[in-house]
Amino acid sequence: MNSIARRVLRSVKHGRAAWLRASSARPGKQRYHRMVLGIETSCDDTGAAVVDEAGCVLGEALHCQKEVHLQSGGIIPVVAQQLHRENIDRVVQEALCASGVSVADIAAVATTVKPGLALSLGVGLQYSRGLVSRHQKPFIPIHHMEAHALTIRLTHHLEFPFLVLLISGGHCLLAVAQGVSDFLLLGQSIDIAPGDMLDKVARRLSLRKHPECHSMAGGQAIEHLAQTGNQELLTIRLPMQQYRNCDFSFSGLQNVVNNAIVQKEKEEGIQEGEILSCVKDVAAAVQHAVAVHIIQRTYRAMLFCIKNSILPSKNATLVVSGGVASNQYIRKVLQNLADANDFALLCPPPRLCTDNGVMIAWNGIERLRAGLGVLHSTAGVRYEPRAPLGIDISKRVEEDSIKVPKLKEIRWLAS
Predict the structure, then answer these.
(1) What is the DSSP code (8-state) at residue 53?
(2) Taking a C-beta distance cutoff of 8 angstroms, is the pair 169, 323 a contact?
(3) What is the pLDDT of residue 283?
(4) Cα(84)–Cα(294) distance, integer angstroms
(5) What is the pLDDT of residues 28-52, one digit of tens each?
């Protein structure tokens, strides 16, 4: 077999990265880009990926625990931990195999260490410690929310600064990304996240018993039923209207919704656990209320950033990421809000909005290029279940006391 045939065979067997490696070995050819292995175990998904400096996803793998947690009605930390332990090595090896490279070929290992479920974070950190120790590789600890915020720079050519709205099952915040590790926190949920609230409302409505929703996660079921519901048939009072800041309260919103559900059950003469005849209207009203609560706080963040010259007055960008960003209704109203305020709206593709190894590997690439947080020892590295993102300037936002339109004045945004 001649040399050309051997190179072609290697590319078929080992993938694109192996072909790059073979090509770069020839005289006069530029060396291939540095690569980072990313590992994600912050909650209930075990993810791994290999990404290079050019933004190419060379290989990825993901193990989702959704079906297990659906059966138990929510995430049980010890169960999530055990599933991570059982699957992490296989997931990492699958990502490496798909990429065609080995740990010896990568420049660093990047792993989520904060914030998240303590037991889940511990699995990823322990596994990564062993990996970097055996292969003598640099380690890059990753802030989960920073990774979500910067994923957009993998999929789009976007320069700093930009406004970020992160909405998921575990987090909700507004921040300005000024650099790779430079964030200004404008506001966050003071209690639970929007995805958590939607899941709890779905359980209260017993949507797993609904014939259209038995295999859907809570938020997905709410979105599905809301498509054919009438949001006008139920009025939901929004929380925190008296506070002119960028904080959120989805627990407060959930309490209002639960009271409305109890009232509807009394009107229909049914017990908790039975399906309301107006369940689609309730779902539509709940989804709308969540969307408008998010809009109002995001609108204030936009006005604050423009007023204080934190973002340019024209052609500023709003980035929306996290699992709830895949809700098409919420994305639509955010698009309308952005259009009305001369902001561009950018969202990663849905598969990169939820937790995954790609975003962790990409954050590792960003930090590697910037020379930020690249460690040559894991001694002293600890996981942190709670960890703020950037510098908190939420008090400054509240001091500016910026007024935004009330619900009835911005209903057009959802049309």
Answers:
(1) T
(2) yes
(3) 98
(4) 32
(5) 333 358 999 999 999 999 999 999 9
Tell me the longest C-alpha to C-alpha distance in the chain: 81
Q: Which residues of the chain have pLDDT under 50?
A: 1-31, 412
Q: Where are the domains of the chain?
A: 35-155+354-384, 162-347+392-409
Instruction: Calculate what percentage of the chain has a pLDDT beyond 90.
Output: 82
Element (H, E) at 369: helix 357-370
264: which 2 tokens? 């509807």
Distances (CA, A) of 408 to 205, 238, 328, 405: 27, 11, 21, 8
CB-CB neighbours of 93 under 10 Å: 13
Helix segments in 25-117, DSSP class H: 66-72, 77-99
pLDDT in tens, 379-392: 999 999 999 999 99
Same CATH topology for 35-155+354-384 and 162-347+392-409: the answer is: yes
- Residues paired with residue 345 on neighbouring β-strands, in sequence order: 318
CATH architecture of 162-347+392-409: 2-Layer Sandwich (3.30)
Please give the Cα distance from 80 to 59 (Å, whole number): 24
Sign, Cα dihedral of 378, 384, 385, 386: negative
pTM, entire model: 0.87
CATH of domain 35-155+354-384: 3.30.420.40
Nearest one of 33, 35, 83 to 62, comparing CA atoms:
83
